[in-house]
Amino acid sequence: MDDRKQRVLQAVVQDYIESAEPVGSRTIARRHDLGVSPATIRNEMADLEMLGYLEHIHTSSGRIPSSKGYRFYVDGLMQPTSLTDEEKAQIDRWYLARVRRIEEVFQETARLISRVTKNVALVLAPQMTKSAFRCLQFLPLDDRRSVAVLMTDAGFIENRIVAMPSGATFEDFQRMARVVNDCLAGCTLDAIPKAAYRKIRSEISDENLYEAAIDVISCALDDTEGRERLYLGGTREMLSQPEFRDVERVKEILMMLEEEQLLKEILHAHLGEGLRVTIGRENDYKGIQDCSIVTATYHLDGELLGTIAVLGPTRMEYGKAMSLLGYMNEHLSDVVRKLGWQG
Amino acid sequence: MDDRKQRVLQAVVQDYIESAEPVGSRTIARRHDLGVSPATIRNEMADLEMLGYLEHIHTSSGRIPSSKGYRFYVDGLMQPTSLTDEEKAQIDRWYLARVRRIEEVFQETARLISRVTKNVALVLAPQMTKSAFRCLQFLPLDDRRSVAVLMTDAGFIENRIVAMPSGATFEDFQRMARVVNDCLAGCTLDAIPKAAYRKIRSEISDENLYEAAIDVISCALDDTEGRERLYLGGTREMLSQPEFRDVERVKEILMMLEEEQLLKEILHAHLGEGLRVTIGRENDYKGIQDCSIVTATYHLDGELLGTIAVLGPTRMEYGKAMSLLGYMNEHLSDVVRKLGWQG
DNA sequence: GTTAGCACTCAGGGCGAGTGAGTGCTAACT
DNA sequence: AGTTAGCACTCACTCGCCCTGAGTGCTAAC
């Protein structure tokens, strides 16, 4: 693949991404200064098609890039666009203006990404079970029940109403909380050692209370186990893409977007260190083989926290999506910190 | 308007709701046993059009109901369908199977309603400020900050990270919580009397701590003020309605559905005791003058809690929507109670 | 008052011609 | 040998046309 072929491929991909129409040799000759005539470009395009980088709907229509073509473009031809300082500042401002509660960070991230990229954004929030126990407290509710509040190192707070075993007083519960706090300090929630349970049992020394304590802990775990939350944004933006002019296609994709479990699987399958792009046919799931996904993992103090992703037609502005996710990837934890989420 | 006219109007509305096609005189004569010929029905339809109950796209197409026609149908002609015991049981089962956290009740309600009615469902969750203060507690986070947990009578729990003023210890905070709990017992959050503030001030007697306390309270209020949460369900279901065969229309309505503030306003405008139906032109907001809204308010222990609504094309199955919302209206609080939300 | 009959209307589908963007091939040019 | 101009060909798309069928409105007869 010589230099000129690459330039032609680049021109085709760029034009197609911009116009969403199959691009012909004349258009390229006019809009890109390749210094050759349309006829020559036609020959190059025929070669590129033979090599599998371009495709043809029918003999007399322009070319569109194949998955392989996009792949080559993303890996080598695309010029990386990086966000301007102004854009970065805007993102920070957006967060400060809109996010008032910890839980909103993820939703707003999804919304922000979808606005900028005009595609669907997916944000997979951290699994609570992966984070370390910080403290458990009880608040009195009435004489039979109280509210258990569980906090983890990552700053997550779960609350849940629990019944107090008959005979137990609120003071018993307070004592239980102290014991549990002592024994579980620093444990990650998905791997509480047997020894910790034994210690709790011996320290509480009341069988009824012990049962209740175990109940609270396992209940908090059950609830979040395998249930990282998924935030979605931009189904509306998506509709402005010409790929979704057809209602049937929209219905299909909306259907898929409501299958939370499926989306999580897809995200997990595509998960890897840093930025990752999966293009069209490279997707295992049939329903989105005309779509691409850009994913990035984000971290907090070196700890893997979750995934952010852009899902859109293969004709996606990869550069923009990648630079945005890259920025998020690096700075989401800063933003979160600024909002006072973590110490 | 004589009896036969009413029967004809009823037939037209029913057929149109079912088929989404303008209905003609022959169709009615065939499908409804009115005992008269199409020609007679034609005459009646012409009268109904004159009276404003029916409309005409062009001379040679069938009739469709006008807003006024739907209104007459809903108010008088429609036979109320009530849910079967099986359906009711199914709803209860759905809740028990899907709802594991208090916050999910609303989301699942929206999802359920949209599934049953094949339209968009809106659930306006209670305003925190309308409920009574129950208690405030602090959990230690680190040496400079702690987590404030605010609970109200309706069972809502808000948590928020607050900085401790320099010099204050966690014990100071605990004391502050006790004072606040004493002074605010039973107040509704949007109407805390001045006297209560004065009492807090005098009892805390430390100006710094007093500021911090006020901060926490007003912060909790700020956050939720005018910000009842809105849960949406069924944008996907909506697409199966023939009214939304056109992507532009879909885009418009999705756009509107993302304007949370606007939706809240619309819901508030339509809010009233019990079941309420607003049809087509009766809507003030132009964007949905080809849509109808059915709203119901729901209660808990006699206290107004929030609103559930169905939004769909005027050609909506009013009977179904109304009976479903009616059931929800009566039983949502039961369901919520069963899930242990409230004592 | 009801109905049959008839002329009229109009959206929607199918069909054919024309248009234009684009290709592939070949022969000439540098 | 690579590049280009020229030309025939392809094919989606649009437009106008006709036809069909569902439906109306009117009138005259029952």
Can you give me a brief rundown of this structure?
2 copies of one chain form a homodimer. Chain A is of the alpha+beta class.
Protein architecture, described:
The structure is a homodimer of 343-residue chains. Chain A has 13 helices and ten strands. Chain A is an alpha+beta fold and 343 residues long. In chain A, a hairpin with a 6-residue loop joins strand 1 and strand 2 (63-65). Chain A is elongated, with a radius of gyration of 26 Å. In chain A, 39% of the residues are buried. The model of chain A has no long low-confidence stretch (mean pLDDT 83). Chain A binds a DNA duplex (30 and 30 nucleotides) through helix 2 and helix 3.
N-to-C SSE string of chain A, H for helix and E for strand: HHHEEHHHEEEEHHHEHHHEEEH
Content of β-strand of chain A: 15-25%
The total strand number of chain A stands at 10
Major pleated sheet of chain A: 5 strands, antiparallel
Supply database-style keywords.
homodimer, 343 residues, alpha+beta, five-stranded antiparallel beta sheet, 13 helices, 49% helix, DNA-binding
Topology:
The structure is a homodimer of 343-residue chains.
Chain A: H1 3-19, H2 25-31, H3 38-50, E1 54-56, E2 63-65, H4 67-77, H5 85-98, H6 104-117, E3 120-124, E4 133-140, E5 145-152, E6 157-163, H7 170-184, H8 194-204, H9 207-224, E7 230-233, H10 235-239, H11 247-258, H12 260-269, E8 276-279, E9 291-300, E10 303-313, H13 318-338
Antiparallel strand pairs in A: 1-2, 3-7, 3-10, 4-5, 5-6, 8-9, 9-10
The structure holds a DNA duplex (30 and 30 nucleotides).
